[in-house]
Every structure is written in C-alpha cells, then in structure tokens.
Amino acid sequence: MPGVCGRPRLEEEFYEKGISGFKSPTADRRALQQIKKDAKQREFDILLVFMFDRLGRRDSETPFFVDDLSMLGIEIWSAREGQQRFGSHADKLINYIRYWQASGESLKISERTKTQMQ
Question: Architecture of domain 4-117 in CATH?
Fold first, then answer.
C-alpha cells in the first residue's frame, strides 16, 4: 500500500528461522501461508525477497505459489535479481526453470554435505 507521498512502505517482514525451502512443503510453511492470505485480502501490492529461492526450492510447488500471487495482482521482486515477470509464456517457463535449478542446488548441497561427513 502507498506510504507518504505515494511511496511504498514496509508493511510486514516475514522470516522462517530453521525452515528449509526444499524440505518443507508450502502448506507447512506458516509465513508463506500468511503471505498468501494477506495477498488475497489485498494487504500488500509488492512482495520483496532477498533472492527468489528464499520463497522455496521445490520445483513442484514454488513456481505455482508465485504464479498464484501474481494472479492476485502481487508484484514479486528480489533485492538481488529484480522483478519476477509473468507476462508471457516464456516468463512462466523461466520462472519454473529458476525453481527447478534451486531444487537441484539443494540436492547438490545435500550430497556434498553427506560426502564431507563421511
């Protein structure tokens, strides 16, 4: 919602200490459920994240979660990567690839950790 002089203002900050965006389904993540609820109630216009993979690393869920927010009129921005676009079919493919890649990164990190521990 606009702040003073029409400039955006920070409405609320969410964080999930100790929650894995790869291991935890969207339905089990209270912060994401609250974000979706607030989006449906038009509590905010822009969701700003540090990086897009902070929303999730589940290629079977995260692209659809962000698409749902977009369908509710929410702009999604990353401090590091800019605006997530949804205007074309190619944009949707790129978004899916983004979370597919994040999922793969989680698998690689897990494998490296297991190997190092052995």
Answer: 3-Layer(aba) Sandwich (3.40)
Residues with Cβ within 8 Å of 73's Cβ and at least 6 positions away in sequence, in order, are 42, 45
- SS3 of residue 47 by DSSP: strand
Cα–Cα distance for residue pair 40/62, rounded to 1 Å: 17
Task: Answer whether 88's CB lies under 8 Å from 118's CB.
Answer: no
Measured CA to CA in angstroms, residue 54 lies from 23, 41, 80, 98, 116 at distances of: 13, 23, 11, 12, 25
Q: State pLDDT tens for residues 64-80.
A: 999 999 999 999 999 99
Tokens of 82: 């800019």
pLDDT tens per residue across span 19-60: 887 788 889 999 999 999 999 999 999 999 998 988 988 888
